[in-house]
Write a structure and sequence with these properties.
The protein is of the alpha+beta class. Helix content is 48%, strand content 17%. The protein folds into 2 domains: 6-36 and 231-373, no CATH class; 60-186, no CATH class. The radius of gyration is 26 Å and the shape is elongated.
């Protein structure tokens, strides 16, 4: 899934999310909770952040739940590069895990279609069975959208196994029903009732999903449009780039003003300092990748390096704006910007966005010249 204009994403790190939440509550005028994700103060802050997220992006919440259902049904395959856990050396145990991988791959072959068939069979027998099955599927496979990672969803494989078991049972029902029909004749009235129940079930299910999604998209588009205009209207302070040579043998644009902010963070400073940088792109260019570079000793947890992509543009187009929140703490250092594929005909200016505290929820924005005509909600990419 992706949205063409904005992204709430970042590195998969508890500490990054902690910094996001800390900045969020500080902009609400509250005290930052400590960077400990298991503490009550942090839980209260994350509840506020989640509530604001749902109010701002309700259509994305619903669509992500639908995407999670499809991924649970189709994509919980065993990793072929690591079919057994690290440290397993027993040949017997490795064989068991290999068998498990084969079973999982079989169970997930066309999982979404197997689920549709199972729900159709349930609805044909009893409408309430079909709706109950659909509710259970959407609930159990949809809630992992809150944090869709293998370690949080692997147990949902039971849904695929249950569906396969149910279809095997239904095949037995069908054999017995056909044998009975050969003796007593086909009950055409019962068949028509079953077909009618299936049509009603899928019509109601489609309407129950599509209508709220479209309504929430209308609501969300207005909210996101207002947010984009608000962040563009903030005062901007131009920054002076200084070319630096970084790791990996590439040059990047550093900013002395941002460096001074980090050195000013003393022992009594808040846990994180939050800033928004805006990149104004002008002139003809192809697709431009902009990487916001960080450095940290503990790169797994505190290296917040992240890349966004700006679409191609013509020379006469109005500017493209890329805005990105920067989170600086005692364990990392913001280095600057790396734009390896910026055309020679292109120009750019980097600004620090001032007075953005009136916007509680910060995110990355990519606003091309025609951003007002683009969708302001997430969509399926495959």
């Amino acid at each position: 899934m992706e949205a063409p204009l904005y992204s709430l994403g970042g590195p998969y790190s508890d500490f990054f999310i902690a910094n996001v939440v800390q900045g969020f509550v500080s902009r609400l005028g509250q005290e930052m909770p400590p960077t400990h994700v298991m503490m009550p103060a942090y839980h209260e802050a994350t509840n506020q952040y989640l509530a604001t997220y749902v109010r701002t992006f309700p259509a994305d919440v619903l669509l992500r739940a639908c995407a999670a259902v499809l991924r649970v049904l189709d994509e919980l395959h065993a990793d072929p590069s690591a079919p057994w856990p690290t440290g397993i050396t027993s040949g017997f145990l490795r064989t068991l895990f290999a068998w498990r991988a084969a079973v999982v791959d079989t169970a997930l072959s066309g999982g979404r279609y197997a689920a549709v068939l199972a729900l159709t069979i349930l609805a044909a027998r009893r409408l309430r069975w079909g709706f109950a099955g659909l509710f259970l599927l959407l609930f159990f496979a949809g809630y992992p959208s809150l944090q869709f990672n293998t370690r949080h969803v692997f147990h949902m494989l039971f849904l695929n196994l249950w569906i396969l078991g149910f279809l095997a049972t239904a095949a037995g029902w069908s054999v017995r029903s056909l044998a009975r029909a050969q003796k007593t004749g086909l009950d055409r009235r019962a068949l028509r009732r079953g077909v009618l129940r299936v049509v009603v079930f899928w019509a109601v299910a489609a309407a129950a999903l599509a209508a709220p999604l479209q309504a929430l998209r209308w609501y969300q588009d207005a909210r996101v449009d207002a947010l984009a205009k608000q962040v563009l209207a903030c005062e901007q302070e131009p920054l002076t780039p200084a070319l630096q040579f970084g790791r990996g043998g590439h040059f990047y644009a550093a900013f002395p003003e941002m460096e001074r902010m980090q050195w000013e963070m003393g022992a009594d400073a808040p846990p994180v300092r939050c800033e928004i940088l805006a990149v104004e792109l002008r002139g003809k260019s192809g697709r431009v990748s902009i990487t916001f570079l960080y450095n940290a000793e503990n790169r797994e947890h505190f290296d917040y390096t992240w890349t966004v992509n700006a679409p191609p543009r013509d020379a006469e187009d109005p500017p493209t704006w890329v805005l990105f929140p920067v989170y600086m703490n005692a364990d990392n250092r913001f280095l600057g910007l790396h734009m390896p594929n910026l055309d020679r005909e292109s120009e750019y200016t980097v600004y620090r966005v001032r007075d953005a505290d009136a916007i509680p929820m910060w995110m990355a924005w990519v606003l091309p010249p025609d951003w007002r005509e683009l969708p302001k909600h997430q969509q399926f990419t495959r």
